[in-house]
Structures are given as structure tokens and as C-alpha cells.
Design a protein that fits this description.
Rossmann fold, nine-stranded antiparallel β-sheet, globular, alpha/beta, 2 domains, single chain, Lipocalin, five-stranded parallel β-sheet
């Protein structure tokens, strides 16, 4: 497999920047390339979906593009596509990257938004049948939100797992090219990867070796800011040591580990969601405002909580998902159930398309 992937890598890299130019040897299907009718045919309980996740705009030193994570996620997805019959979704290109926000052009969502984005994208796709999802995770700060998302989805009966740089297998894959023990960001590894993917976007004359963040944690800053860690380059590691050849080897080794985990996920039995039928009884009922011109009806069926808002019946379209203790969301509505001192639900805080109201249980 390793030799095949390395050969394939050389043939793929010239078309990576053009998503519409897929390799005819692909075994995978890219969701963005097909129609909804074709999606209807291939999305079912036997489908395994792969979601690449990489920041579309995040600093990676003065020598690499802001899209460095995105490009790595894209390249790895293309390598997986050549080896496995999976469905690959569009890249999730925003997420939780707070450490880099002092560098112009870098973007980040909040922790909650990053978690919710993954949860909601996967819930949408799971509604068509698939219950197994694998995320190609290009990031470190993305791990905690993904762990939170996986826990939420598991209670819905959806299995989601993802790649992690701190797993021994992936650490070993990166060790194939690492020549210095210290690395972490926009370093020898990432520089090599982008040189092998999009050399036209790399300015090696500006690549420097920077270990100023060694043994430090927290947000970096390009200029002195109280409470921050000064790092004028935005690099953690030895970027000047990057080469095309190292990048080709690393991307191949990393893709092999991704494929191993995807294969393991395929073999895992589907999981059952949490039985909430007893828990949901607390929420059932009719809630109205003081004027009586707004009515929310909450009911459950088949372990799913539904709602009717002002006689608008959306039970066959958008049910309520539990996202936290007494907190639920749906396409149009967010609901927080409030309990009295005896633990009985007495009212709800309801946000309906941006409008906030309090409703009392009748």
C-alpha cells in the first residue's frame, strides 16, 4: 500500500488545487460532485463518510499560505479517495484556532460553535442513513471540540471518530521525516507537506527556524502583548529544513494511518443511541406566553422529541436534538427548559429565529 500511495501521490499533486478535476482511479465519491438523486442512491446505513477538517485561513509563518491546513486536508482526502470506497464530504474550513488570532488573516470560531458545526453537519448527513463518520483532522486545538462532538453524536446513535497527532501511529508517521525533536506549527513537517502539494505558494526564502515557543503554552503574538507569548515568525519548529521529498513521504505515511483507522471504523458494529423516553416525559406539554398568542407543544415519539409552534407542525421535518442539560436545538428553534426548586419543568427560554421569549408550562 505504501508504495502504491507514493506513486499515486506524484500523479495527484498537479490537480489538487482544482477540486473538479478528480482522479479517474478514485474509489471514493466526493459528495460535492454529485446530485441529490445520486446522493439518495449511495447514502445509507452501509455508507462511511469522511469529513476533511482544515482551517481555510490560519497563520502558518511568513512562508506558508493561510490555507495550509485546508491544503493538507484536501491532499489527504484525495489520497484516501484512491484507496477506499467511502463518501468524502466538502472540507470543513472553519474551527477552533484561538492561539493564532493575533496574526492578521487568522480565523477561529468559539469552542461551542466549532463543536456545534461538526455535530450539525453530521446530524444532517446521518438523517439519510449513514451512522459512521471519520474526520481527517488537521489541527491540535480542534481535538477538544471533536471529542465533545463525538460524545453528543454517540448519544444519538452516531459513531464519529477522527485522526489525532498525539496518537502513537500518527506520531510515528511524522517521525519518518522529522530531523529535529522540536516541532509543532508551520515547521519542518508542514513546510515539507505544502512544498509537495502547492510549491507555488511556499516562499522558502522566508522560512526560518524558530523555537521561541518551546516549553510555553497559550496564545502567540507577533508583537509584544501582555499575557501573550511573543513569536515574531508564527513558526514553532525548523521550517527551513522542509523539502519536497520529506513532504511526499510524510503525506503518504499519514494517509496510510488514516486508511487503517477508516478500515477499523468500517468493522465496528453500529452503536445504539441513548434511550431518553423517560427523561423526555419531563418536557412534554404545552407552553404559552403571557398574552397567549404564542404556543409551543412538546411531545415525543420513538425516543425523539418533537415540537409544534403556533400550530406549525414540523414533526416530520425538524425534531429537537439534545445539546446539553435541559437544552435542545432544531433548525428554527433553541429551547432551554427551566426547572423549579423541586426539579419540575415549569417554563422555557425559547429562541425562535433570533427572537427571544419566555413561555410558561400549562
Amino acid at each position: 500500500m505504501k508504495i502504491n500511495l507514493l506513486i499515486i501521490f506524484f500523479t495527484c499533486i498537479t490537480v489538487l488545487s482544482f477540486a473538479q478535476n478528480r482522479n479517474p482511479k478514485n474509489k471514493a465519491v466526493f459528495l460535492e460532485d454529485i446530485s441529490w438523486t445520486t446522493a439518495q442512491e449511495i447514502l445509507n446505513e452501509n455508507s462511511l463518510l469522511v469529513l476533511p477538517l482544515g482551517a481555510g485561513s490560519k497563520e502558518h509563518g511568513p512562508h506558508l499560505p493561510l490555507s495550509t491546513d485546508f491544503l493538507q486536508a484536501q491532499a489527504l482526502a484525495d489520497l484516501v479517495a484512491l484507496e477506499r470506497n467511502v463518501v468524502i464530504t466538502p472540507i470543513i474550513n472553519y474551527g477552533f484556532y484561538p492561539a493564532f488570532l493575533k496574526y492578521p488573516g487568522s480565523t477561529s470560531t468559539t469552542f461551542a460553535t466549532a463543536t456545534d458545526m461538526v455535530v450539525q453537519v453530521i446530524r444532517s448527513l446521518a438523517a439519510y442513513g449513514p451512522k459512521k463518520f471519520y474526520i481527517i483532522n488537521i489541527g491540535v486545538s480542534t481535538t477538544p471540540p471533536l471529542l465533545a462532538a463525538a460524545k453528543i453524536l454517540a448519544e444519538d446513535g452516531i459513531l464519529m471518530t477522527f485522526s489525532r497527532y498525539d496518537k502513537p501511529a500518527f506520531e510515528k508517521a511524522e517521525a519518518v521525516i522529522r530531523t529535529k525533536s522540536y516541532s509543532g506549527h508551520a515547521d519542518e513537517i508542514e513546510t515539507s507537506n505544502i512544498l509537495s502539494i502547492r510549491p507555488d505558494l511556499v516562499e522558502m526564502k522566508r522560512a526560518v527556524n524558530d523555537s521561541s515557543m518551546k516549553a510555553k503554552a497559550g496564545s502567540m503574538t507577533p508583537t509584544p502583548i501582555e499575557g501573550g507569548n511573543l513569536n515574531t515568525s508564527g513558526i514553532n519548529g525548523y521550517a527551513a529544513l522542509g523539502t519536497v521529498e520529506k513532504g511526499q513521504k510524510n503525506m503518504t505515511s499519514f494517509a496510510i494511518e488514516l486508511i487503517k483507522e477508516i478500515d477499523m471504523l468500517k468493522d465496528i458494529e453500529p452503536i445504539k443511541g441513548k434511550d431518553r423516553s423517560v427523561e423526555f416525559k419531563d418536557y412534554e406539554g404545552i407552553y404559552t406566553n403571557e398574552k397567549g398568542d404564542l404556543k409551543l407543544e412538546i411531545s415525543q415519539k420513538d425516543n425523539i422529541l418533537h415540537y409544534i409552534l403556533n400550530d406549525r407542525d414540523l414533526r416530520n421535518f425538524f425534531h429537537l436534538y439534545k445539546d446539553g442539560t435541559d437544552y435542545f436545538s432544531s433548525m428554527y428553534i433553541n429551547i432551554l427548559f427551566i426547572r423549579d426548586k423541586n426539579g419540575k419543568v415549569e417554563k422555557v427560554w425559547c429562541r425562535n429565529r433570533g427572537e427571544y421569549v419566555w413561555l410558561e408550562k400549562k
